[in-house]
């Protein structure tokens, strides 16, 4: 998804009411920045990224009027590293919206943005290809909703076989936003994550954002040839599990009495897989005791919901898992007796991403302690040690069974490392090979009584 790069980015931000929070719950990071940055006309402030990552180089783009958080970035020329990871403190079991923002700006003197991967936890999230947005003078952003499986969450970028040899992955900003338990709770976040495809406020001309949405979701404007109507009454966001902002109900697109309403949404062609879909409606008229607005909802010709009776209080309908493929068409067909035509206020579509395969927590704890004990661990010794497999830590090999990866060998031969080996190494119970020769390790060699699988050991 894309956003303008200049200062008029969040044009719909109103002056803050006294009761509104000044910052969403979460962490807003401006990558490559050395000072705190804020978005003009808002209370949003972004902190520098130094405390979250220990690899990469900072740079500043020379351009007037660029949104401050897009004017700096961090890029990663260090080719030996298999991934470049940020680490965030989170609450285990909490639910988070993570947004990554990219604006190339020709930082490397080139004309085309590099194409690379982004990774969250041990899961490949997506390819980052900002080529088209950049050509259109826009920044790009990606969003995912995940459940935290541990006390830290890693967000990484990595080279892929699509990354040009002379180019470097980069990132402009990362936002890790805390969501409520009830939000999107039909999804099992232990095994799945939701990758945002579209979040739209129909009939709106501006995007809706913080503080109208206290969770800092971005609701993009969507209008087409259909009529736009305004609402007469307001809804209460708290009546909905997903807490859509009240402002998303202020406008709708609508069809007249007895007419069908058809929208091509989300725009573009979708990859054939499973999606989470939720749609939001509110009768925009003044409340009336004897005039209903009833219609049926179909997605690509298949019934999604029959005889939806839309009240002035608002309703939502959703599917936790709906197959979509190619272009998408939503059709709202009025009931013959309905005294008003169909309408729709807002909608969200997320791709369901299998999420949760990761290295056994005990192995991770040992590896993190080993990394802390070394004076100069490899630059990619952050994030999940084993996963994704193409992006495991340098020198680490693993076996994967079901959704759990275990460390089976560790090879840092001639890696130029110094430091000590922690006692906890005895806890890597599936370790077969340990090669640490040709380094400047000091201290004593820990006992390895529990390493029953150990076949090879070179420590000197
Ligand atoms: C990146 O930073 C490192 C030191 O932090 C420096 O040695 C290296 O030259 C920089 N790379 C580029 C491409 O500027
Ligand atoms: C990136 O996107 C552009 C424009 O959509 C496309 O032409 C190009 O093939 C993509 N690059 C890669 C490596 O996928
Ligand atoms: C690129 O890498 C992916 C997996 O990382 C692999 O599936 C694909 O075949 C590779 N493509 C090429 C052209 O090597
Ligand atoms: C989702 O949250 C709502 C509100 O707290 C609750 O009533 C509902 O049972 C929850 N659903 C699931 C599947 O947990
Ligand atoms: C729609 O809901 C109202 C109450 O909210 C009810 O009185 C009415 O009978 C319903 N209409 C239909 C067609 O279900
Ligand atoms: C190995 O892990 C257990 C917990 O699973 C812990 O109690 C023990 O202290 C660890 N051993 C070492 C040497 O750290």
Q: Please, could you describe this protein's structure?
A:
There is one protein chain. With 460 residues, the chain is mainly beta. The chain has three domains: 11-179, Jelly Rolls (Sandwich), CATH 2.60.120; 199-353, Sandwich (Jelly Rolls), CATH 2.60.120; 358-458, Alpha-Beta Horseshoe (Leucine-rich repeat, LRR (right-handed beta-alpha superhelix)), CATH 3.80.10.10. It has helices spanning 68-71, 131-135, 361-373, and strands at residues 2-4, 26-30, 37-38, 45-48, 57-60, 72-75, 84-89, 95-102, 116-120, 123-128, 138-147, 152-158, 170-171, 173-179, 192-202, 220-222, 227-230, 251-254, 261-264, 270-281, 294-299, 302-309, 315-326, 329-334, 343-344, 346-354, 358-359, 396-401, 404-411, 418-419, 433-435, 440-441, 456-458. The strands form seven sheets. Strands 1, 2, 3, 4, 8, 11, 14, 15, 16, 20, 23 and 26 form a twelve-stranded mixed beta sheet that branches. β28 (396-401) and β29 form a beta hairpin. The termini are far apart. Residues 115, 129, 131-132, 162 line the site of one 2-acetamido-2-deoxy-beta-D-glucopyranose (NAG). Its main location: membrane.
Can you summarize this structure?
Keywords: Membrane, Signal, Transmembrane, Transmembrane helix. The chain has 460 residues and is mainly β.
């Amino acid at each position: 998804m894309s956003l303008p790069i200049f200062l008029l980015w969040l044009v719909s931000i109103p002056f803050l009411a006294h009761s509104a929070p000044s910052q969403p719950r979460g962490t807003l990071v401006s990558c490559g920045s050395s000072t705190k940055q804020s978005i003009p006309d808002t209370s949003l402030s972004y902190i520098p990224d130094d405390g979250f990552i220990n690899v990469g180089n900072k740079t500043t783009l020379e351009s007037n009027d660029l949104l401050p958080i897009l004017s700096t970035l961090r890029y990663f020329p260090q080719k030996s590293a298999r991934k470049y990871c940020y680490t965030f403190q989170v609450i285990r079991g909490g639910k988070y919206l993570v947004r990554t923002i990219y604006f190339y700006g020709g930082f490397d003197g080139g004309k085309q943005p590099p194409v690379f991967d982004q990774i969250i936890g041990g899961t490949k999230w997506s390819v980052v290809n900002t080529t088209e947005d950049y050509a259109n003078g826009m920044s790009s952003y990606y969003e995912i909703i995940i459940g935290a499986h541990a006390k830290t969450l890693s967000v990484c970028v990595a080279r892929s076989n699509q990354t040009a040899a002379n180019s470097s992955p980069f990132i402009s900003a990362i936002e890790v936003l805390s969501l409520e338990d009830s939000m999107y709770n039909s999804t099992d976040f232990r095994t799945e994550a939701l990758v945002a495809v579209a979040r739209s406020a129909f009939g709106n001309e501006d995007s809706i954002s913080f503080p109208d949405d206290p969770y800092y979701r971005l609701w993009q404007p969507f209008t087409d040839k259909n009529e736009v109507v305004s609402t007469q009454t307001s809804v209460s966001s708290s009546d909905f599990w997903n807490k859509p902002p009240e402002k998303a109900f202020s406008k709708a697109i609508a069809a007249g009495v007895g007419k069908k309403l058809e929208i091509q949404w989300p725009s573009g062609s979708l990859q054939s897989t499973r999606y989470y879909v939720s749609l939001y409606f509110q009768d925009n008229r003044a409340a009336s005791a004897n005039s209903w607005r009833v219609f049926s909802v179909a997605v690509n010709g298949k019934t999604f919901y029959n005889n939806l009776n839309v009240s002035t209080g608002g309703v939502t309908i959703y599917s936790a898992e709906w197959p979509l493929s190619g272009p998408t068409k939503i059709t709202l067909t009025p009931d013959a007796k309905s005294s008003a035509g169909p309408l729709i206020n807002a909608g969200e579509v997320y791709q369901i991403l299998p999420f949760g395969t990761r290295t056994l927590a005990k192995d991770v704890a040992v590896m993190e302690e080993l990394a802390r004990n070394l004076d100069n661990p490899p630059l990619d010794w952050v994030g999940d040690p084993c996963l994704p497999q193409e992006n495991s830590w340098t020198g680490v090999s693993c076996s994967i069974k079901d959704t759990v990866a275990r460390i089976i060998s560790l090879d840092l031969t001639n890696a130029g490392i110094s430091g000590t080996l922690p006692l906890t190494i005895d806890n890597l119970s599936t370790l077969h090979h340990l090669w640490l020769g040709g380094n400047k390790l000091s201290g004593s060699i820990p006992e390895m009584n529990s390493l029953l699988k150990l076949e090879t050991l070179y420590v000197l």
